[in-house]
Structure formats: structure tokens, C-alpha cells
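Example record

One chain of 289 residues, shown exactly as stored in the release files.
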Amino acid sequence: MNEFDVALNNLLQRQLEGGYLSMLTGLQIAEWLGTELDEVRTRRADLLGRTRDGVLVHLELQATHDPKMALRMAEYALAIYRRYGSIPVQIVMYPGQKPLRMESALQGPGWSYRCQIVDIRDMPSESLLESELPEDNVLAILTRFADQADTVHRILTRIAGAPADKRQALLSELTLVAGLRKLRAILGKEIDQMPILLDLKDHNILGLPFRKGLKQGRQEGQAKGREQGREQGREQGERSPASIMLTHRFGALPPAVLQHLEAMPSAEIEQMSDRILTAATLDDLFGSV
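Predicted C-alpha cells for this chain:
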């Protein structure tokens, strides 16, 4: 599962505990279950939970068109039934850019199957933005809305009002899912212009203070100033989106990799962020730095 899937999974998991998706489906998860399903080969669902009434709920994320999605979901349903003895309510969440074209049903002689497929873009932006749950607010970034800057501003304002111990996770998730809609530049600009988010900027999710600190250090005429700028860039660079994703993917980063990140231009960092999801090792991204 790539970093985008992890971020969106986390958001949807918390929503099914009482957010918009609970209202949409009429289901509220009380207990999350193991997602590895017994079969000839191991099958892993994205999210699988049980409501207080004992109803199983299976949520699957699919960001690209899969002509066999209904078949996959039917196989999941049978694997879940084999393990837990109950057929689940199944929902496919589609956050992709292209029009939704996946079939949700299978038909055969004396047999039929259907799951629900939800295009996240069709979810009501305004309802999500007005929700008291910040997870709903973050999910709104994937819906259809007219004013990108205003929508991002409203989401960031809600995150700023969230409990302090939740802000970093929410901002990290917003940064990752905003990348799917190519809104990271607008997100960075809004963070930079909102005084209410100064505490969030300290987390440096978008790497903004990293680049400013490094540039300031390079422009200083004295060695001390340059060293302070580099140190500030290095410390804050450890919390940049690229390093956060790298750490999630590969664990603690070696000093040589952190130094290499510090020296990379912002354009290269942005390009590398897309490759993090498919790289097998750090060497695939940096070579032998």
C-alpha cells in the first residue's frame, strides 16, 4: 500500500467511526478487524470493521480503473465470509482523476453480486467542509469545488482549530491527498499566507521553512550565517513531505540521505516525491550517496 493509500485509509477509517461515511452508509464501526483473508494465496483488504450491531463493513480504495473490480470485491466477500462467517457490506471508494467506469455488479445463472462504488468527487464538498470532524474537512480536497484557494484555506483553518496532537497528522494527510489533485502549490501558498497557521508551519510539512532557511544561509556573507542557515534547513528538512514519506517507507533515514535532501532543489524534491511510492530501496532514489 503506497503513502497516499495509507493517508486516505487513515482518514476513512476515522470517518467510519462517526464521520460523513457513517452518515452516508448508516453504519458506524465499533471494532476494526484483521484484513488478511485466508485463501490459497493471502488476500489483504484495505479496511474491514464490525459495527456495534455485528455488521461487517469492507472498504476498498481503488484510484485507477479496474475492469474486474466487481470480481475482486466478490472474491473479497467470499474470503471474508470464510473467515468471519458473515457477508460484509462492501464499498469501493474511487479517488481517481478520470471518470468512474468500473462496473459494480456480476450476473450469472441463478446468481448475482453487487457492491457499492462511490466516486469521492461526487461527495458534497460543502457538507464535508462544514462538518465538525477535521477528517471530513480534509476529505473535501478530493471533491469537486469551484474555488481551490478558498477550499484549501477553509480546510487549513479547520486543521488549525483541531487539537494540537492531531494537527501534524491531519496536515500530513492533507498534503498527501492534495497531491492527487495537484494542489500542493496552492496548499503551500495558503499556509505561507495564514498567520493563524504559524504553528503548523513549524512542522514544515511542505518544506517551506527548509527552503527559506537554506536560501537565507547561502546568502549570508559570514560563515556563521551560512552554517546557521544550513542547520535550520537540515533540521526542518527532516520534517519535509519527502523525508516524512521516506521515513514511513524505509524507516529512519541515514545522515547522508538527509544531507542530500538538504542540497536538492525544490523541483527535484517534488519529482522525487512521486517516485517514492514505487521505489524498492533508498538506493533506487539516491544511488550510493
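Notes: The chain has three domains: 3-122, 125-201, 208-282.
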